[in-house]
Design goal:
binds flavin-adenine dinucleotide, about 35% helix, FAD/NAD(P)-binding domain, Flavocytochrome C3, Chain A, domain 1, six-stranded mixed β-sheet
Amino acid sequence: MPILIVGGGACGAVAALAARDAGLDPLLIERDGHPSGSTGMSQGLFCAAGTRFQQEAGIDDSPDLFFQDIQTKSRGLADPVIGRLIADQSGPVLEWLHQSHGLPWTLDARFRPSYGNSRARIHGWAGHSGADMVQWLHRRLNDVGVDVLLNTRLVDIITDDDGRVVAAAIQGGDGEVLTVGCDALVLACGGFGANRDMTRKYMPETEAFRYNGHEGSEGDAIEIGERLGAAVADMGSYQGYAMLADPAGISVPPNVLIEGGIIVNTSGERFTDESEDIAGMVLPLSEQPDGAGWVIFDKRIYRKCAHIPELQELTRLGAVRDAANIEGLTERTGLPDRALRTTLAKIRLAEKAGEVDQFGRSWGRGEGPSRGYYAVRVTGALYHTQGGLQIDSEARVVRRDGRPFPNLFAGGGSARSVSGPSSWGYLPAMGLTTAVALGYVAGQGAAKYAQKLG
Ligand SMILES: Cc1cc2nc3c(=O)[nH]c(=O)nc-3n(C[C@H](O)[C@H](O)[C@H](O)COP(=O)(O)OP(=O)(O)OC[C@H]3O[C@@H](n4cnc5c(N)ncnc54)[C@H](O)[C@@H]3O)c2cc1C
């Protein structure tokens, strides 16, 4: 078999489409009976720089600016080679998936530049969701004749003395392990958020968080890669999220904060600048009583976010509580009236003075929540990990001695991302960006290698 691709999320599906477009017949294996991965749980939003959709909207963006944003957000600690690769490939991969495979991506201009993205560069589609994206990608795999083997898990990789992958051990649903030969292999089987031993080891501060990612992210790529002598990096890096609705288990979209919403603890007090770090905010929330809080916003903000499927779903489930005034808000949430009044009054003072508030957040006139309130109870969660196998500029996995495995590729959650070493370096929508961009590069690289072998 020329190319084996492991994992049926965005990274694996895109790698398979890229290999197929290059004229190869890849086989994709997926451990679940139904492809989803974290991709299927996501909002389906993706960063791309310098696209024609941005140009049409008059947005001046480029791979260079995207790269700069990656470096700034990660405090210069992201691997510049991987950062450059992602920044350069994000636009072309989006255009290719749009033109060649019909993915109806367009710019989500309502997702304003925020949390480190200095330009509007988040793309999605109306009513978007990650589940739609997985379905679309798998329909395309079917259309172009890529074989997908479900209920099949990679359990090992066999290399020769030169570190060249020659075969893979795969286990079917009946438990039988088969060894299949392959010319190149792409590891696209997600991160390790579902592997409690690994998260305890690499990111012990997440021990008390809920896990809200895919159960298949058990770290198989990393464990198998390490057995082969692969290098790993940024293993303490992750995307947490402070706005998992409790108990609904649905993400309150970040746009609610971007448009002026706040988070208070169960004492009605704010504890952070909600506009600063969308992922790292999970840590200050975890230090509050019960690790719980309330997102507070108002009618104006609700209207601006009403198009977002997650907010629609939360509303349908009754998780969004509304109140005409602070008294009502207190009744609907159980938050202390006096503290809530003080919290909101402080924001109005900062607005009037045109000064930053005590947490360093700046407020435009009328931006903070005012009459016609909404509230959602939230808790913090781990969504997906950002560390993984070290890769080079061709998405080839790199050994601990610095040499690449010639025909072993990785992307998405399986590879080192560009969020730096910890919780504070995540740019919104970088998860899918790395999955799609690195999947594209890995699929093309695997195809090139297999073609060379003839
Ligand atoms: C709730 C939520 C919302 C998110 N929203 C966004 C968003 O809007 N934008 C964004 O950019 N990012 C978002 N993310 C992150 C994003 O979803 C992930 O970073 C991205 O989907 C990773 O893609 P992937 O293909 O690498 O992994 P996955 O989509 O997880 O796919 C990996 C697949 O590999 C399979 N697998 C695992 N091990 C094996 C094995 N040994 N053999 C065979 N198959 C295996 C798994 O079952 C899985 O299907 C979100 C994450 C979550 C949890």
